[in-house]
Amino acid sequence: MLNSTMMRAVLWSGIPFNVTVGNYPRPTIQNSTDVIVRVTAAAICGSDLHLYRGTRTPPTGPTDPVPIGHEAMGYVAEVGEGVNFLSVGDFVVIPDRTDEGHLLMEPHSYTAYGSAALPGSQAEYVRVPYADNGLIPIETTNGTEPLIDYLFLSDIFPTAWTALDYSGFQSGDTVAIFGAGPVGQLAIHCAMLRGASKVYSIDSVPARLELAASQGAIPISFNTSDPVAQILAYEPNGVRRTVDCVGYEAVNSSMLPQENAVLQNMINSTSINGGLGVAGVYHVYEPEAYSMPLSLGAIWAKALKLSSGAVNPMTEAPRLADLIATGRARPSFIISANISIEDAPEYYARFEQHRETKVVIQFPMA
């Protein structure tokens, strides 16, 4: 059994632009299939900013404080008696979603971390239900191995990889990646690993475009001139694939909110018979209240294929873990700040202001 009844956690109370760090009840085993993980590192995700900004639907308003976050890794600290394949001391990555504990025969939504029912992972400890199928075990054979790379198996590395799959990407393709935040940067990384002939990175933040260029991407600043015209100047027939790593908080060239800005630019810059992959998050509650115009005629006339959706990290984790273990992939290059949990409120603000690329909260193991 764990000793103390309280832990430190990053807490969300439903107030925009406000997270706090405080004491929160340490999780305990509730069901025999649970595991408690002692967290060594957790990341702030762009999806956390939807909550932070108050743009996520449905809006919740002020609530009792609850731990936020869904990207973490650590060591198994306690195991329920019904867990068969995990032991205390195992090093694991906590994916952004939980297993449902039974076989589901039809499409369904998934349970995510960050609610009173399932508190988030920006905390010293996390309860993982149905842990045999809800964690990503990592074999560690070298004490000096850079384990931090595995943190990104929790969400954004599989999301970036799958975004390319959604677009129909194949080796040798040209690809334009809209958004150069953490997912966009890893989409560039994945495209390079998978043999893209040219990669274009579209954003407005100079530091992000510089990081994209350092990977070999061609930077396109959308607030200096029309990004579609810039892409077509390089690729007169359009790029073969386009990827949305932005979502519903897209802005236009005047930096004003325009939810369809990225998707429309993708349609206009993709070649005939090309593909569009959408990894950016869009509203799933009250969809009729968040409809937006798109050029369906252009999609039809150009015979474009579009695929989208949330990503299950468990699906791609084995392949991507192998890329990390062999040194081919190093997703930790996106980290711009390693911080203590006590500094989380300051770095949420910095991340929201595009002053950080990726923030990782490090927890002491002593």
UniProtKB/TrEMBL annotation:
GO terms for molecular function: oxidoreductase activity; zinc ion binding. The keyword Nucleotide-binding does not apply. Keywords: Metal-binding, NAD, Oxidoreductase, Zinc. InterPro entries: ADH-like_C, ADH-like_N, ADH_Zn_CS, GroES-like_sf, NAD(P)-bd_dom_sf. It comes from the Eukaryota. Its cofactor is Zn(2+). Residues 182-254 form the Alcohol dehydrogenase-like C-terminal domain. Residues 32-132 form the Alcohol dehydrogenase-like N-terminal domain. This is GroES-like protein.
